[in-house]
Design a protein that fits this description.
four-stranded antiparallel sheet, NADH Oxidase, 8 helices
């Protein structure tokens, strides 16, 4: 795959393929199984037009078939034995003493983390899975970090019913659609430069 900078605005990703891509994100692994994300899939052209100026005017925002704004959970969801952490652990249906021990381990680990940043890093696992799922269907993608998070958030708060009390923009928006450009040459470091085998 490659980061597609020019999409064909006349072609739309089917409902089924869009669902497959989003499911690849939903089923992604996460540390402790805490899934610190939400995916806001936006096909609505008018809303994407509103977002475009806050995304450095990049044409991928409006020319792609849809975009996904990845939201990450804010740190307060993980500090101490929160309801969110308890619910994610309880669904494993472990005996209570095992749940308590697991919750303690999660709490100790995350107390040493800057949890808002930890959650944002976790979101990149889901992003990668969506990128590869899309490519497996012949659908191009472009992960975008060039945007103003607070401005994007303000538009979404105004135009949708998304509650940002527990969430922030993760640091990535991704455009999906059909490429209207030649596949560029791929430049990567050599195996010798990046792989250490012991």
């Amino acid at each position: 795959r490659f980061a597609c900078k020019k999409f064909d605005p006349t072609r739309s990703v089917s409902k089924e393929d869009k669902a497959f891509i989003l499911e690849a994100g939903r089923l992604s692994p996460s540390s402790f199984g805490l899934e610190p994300w939400k995916f806001v899939a936006i096909s609505n052209k008018a809303l994407r037009e509103q977002l475009k100026p806050h995304c450095w005017g990049q044409p991928q925002i409006t020319d792609s078939s849809f975009i996904v704004v990845i939201l990450s959970r804010l740190g307060h969801n993980f500090r101490g034995k929160t309801d969110y952490v308890a619910e994610k652990i309880a669904r494993r249906k472990l005996p209570q003493e095992m749940q308590d021990a697991y919750a303690e381990r999660v709490t100790v680990h995350l107390s040493a983390e800057e949890t808002t940043q930890w959650a944002k890093r976790q979101c990149y696992i889901a992003l990668s899975n969506m990128l590869n799922a899309a490519q497996s269907l012949g659908i191009s993608s472009c992960p975008i970090e060039g945007f103003y998070p607070e401005e994007v958030k303000a538009v979404l708060e105004k135009e949708t019913n998304i509650d940002f009390k527990d969430f922030d923009i993760s640091g990535a928006i991704c455009a999906f659609g059909y490429s209207a450009m030649e596949r560029p040459e791929k430049f990567r470091s050599s195996k010798e430069e990046v792989i250490i085998e012991i």
